[in-house]
Amino acid sequence: MTDISPLFGRVAIIGIGLIGSSLARALVEYRLAQEVVCADRSAEACAKAMELGIVATATTDLADALEGSELVVLATPVGSFAEVGERIGPHLRPGTIVTDVGSVKQAVLRDVGPHIPAGVHLIPGHPVAGTEHSGPESGFATLFEGRWCILTPPPAANPEAVAKVEEMWRRVGSKVELMEANHHDRVLAITSHLPHLIAYTIVGTASDLEESTQSEVIKFSAGGFRDFTRIAASDPIMWRDIFLNNREAVLEVLQRFTEDLTALQRAIRWGEGQHLQDHFTKTRAIRRGIIDARQA
Amino acid sequence: MTDISPLFGRVAIIGIGLIGSSLARALVEYRLAQEVVCADRSAEACAKAMELGIVATATTDLADALEGSELVVLATPVGSFAEVGERIGPHLRPGTIVTDVGSVKQAVLRDVGPHIPAGVHLIPGHPVAGTEHSGPESGFATLFEGRWCILTPPPAANPEAVAKVEEMWRRVGSKVELMEANHHDRVLAITSHLPHLIAYTIVGTASDLEESTQSEVIKFSAGGFRDFTRIAASDPIMWRDIFLNNREAVLEVLQRFTEDLTALQRAIRWGEGQHLQDHFTKTRAIRRGIIDARQA
User: Fold this and answer.
1) A127: domain range?
2) Domain shared by A269 and A125, yes or no
3) Which member of B195, B264, B280 has the closest CB to residue A225?
4) Using one digit for the tens of pLDDT, what is the confidence trace for B205-261?
5) CATH number of residue B13's parent domain
6) A vs B: CB pairs below 8 A
7) B44: Cβ–Cβ under 8 A, 6 or more apart, which residues?
8) What is the ipTM of this complex?
9) Domain stop point among A151, A179, A207
10) Between chains, do B224 and A280 touch, taking CB under 8 Å as contact?
11) What digits encode the pLDDT tens for the residues A30-51?
């Protein structure tokens, strides 16, 4: 009864976690696919996906899920991409589009690229969206609404395939930006990877305190710490893989961060009030930029 | 028409910023004072407070505000406490209660304590509440609802004066906890001061990037960075003073944090996935604690 025809026939989602299950829900809700199926190496996750009714079929057999799929979405942790690529390669038929939702993008070209047969289109993507929750039960169809999705197609990518993936993200509510994988990884290292690393660190530091202090840290967490614990509750495997696969860019911004922190530490030690005040004033400008860009 | 009599006659709030103006509003709204007046060294802030109608009178003359006040609340940046203490001392009459809302507590006893005449009760306090906004126009009466307020009365403090300050915070909706000033400063160093220092640092690091990258950092800030910018938009003078006045405790937790960050940095450099995963899993427990304590 809608005049918008589905973008895809069958869509296979590989890995039915928070992002995979959210996309599955959105594809169904916005009628962007005739059928959505999923594969997950966890039989439990498959059963959950079926129980939730978010896919037509769920299987632990990759080949079954790929059969007849026009679009394949990799939504497993980035560290599994080399293996998943190797296993899906032989089952991909010409014309199929393969995309992903990983938080690092050079690694996709490196790990999945070599397994993509001629005539199959690899269009890597990264929806900048998520929550601190994991698993198929945590997903929801509106997760991508108003959020950015960054696509990093290689220079020789098929323009029609790029346009189709772009259209899919737009129809689930996202704003789409195209950039080079290398540039993506540098930008996200500062906007996402470093913040997560720091949040994981400080929460770890707190959890090493003696137990009595720890319970007070929890009690009085509203002073700023609480925001870090939310970030540091994100999926451990996903984040392990992000850091291992964006090593250079993360180490580079981490070095800058450490230098800056050391300078502030020195200012505190020597009582350099003006230095602190100047720094704390400067950072307000970035916040204003975010509010102006309606990203707050 | 209420059967709860006001706790105080006249209350003087010194410094009518976010916290001072919120408390002024709450004291009026919950009828905890017969009259609320304020003093602020900024004539502009005084005019704003009058325009907003949150105080009966606003003055730049400290002595005027103290005249006849049963309770005096210091709500200026902590770095001004020594000077403010010196100036209010001669005008305090026996029986007056002096409290504050500063984020560090040993410094209050050190800087204000010596100026308090015999028979005047100094009961330092810290409402663990706030937003990233500053100034009298940013306050609101419900700011303290459901939040903790920590009181750090010295051992010899008058129990009735402590009870009255405690009662005031309870009636504006807070939960109250008593602890030693020294312990307060150590706990808050990790739950609030270190998170702010780190947020200020990372936002500063981002603002030093070349301009093209900076606009993308703003654009894609939803990946974690955004939460840091909110924290790093807090009042620069207030935070300068907190770091200068809780130097030892901040430097101590900062040292622990830096060691932990260096260990994670090393794990990333050498590809030690298991180390990263173990750390990222451990931090989830603290988040669960916060959710269980209903502080999330």
Assistant:
1) 8-179
2) no
3) B195
4) 998 887 777 888 888 988 889 889 988 988 999 999 999 999 999 999 999 999 999
5) 3.40.50.720
6) 292
7) none
8) 0.89
9) A179
10) no
11) 999 999 999 999 999 999 999 9
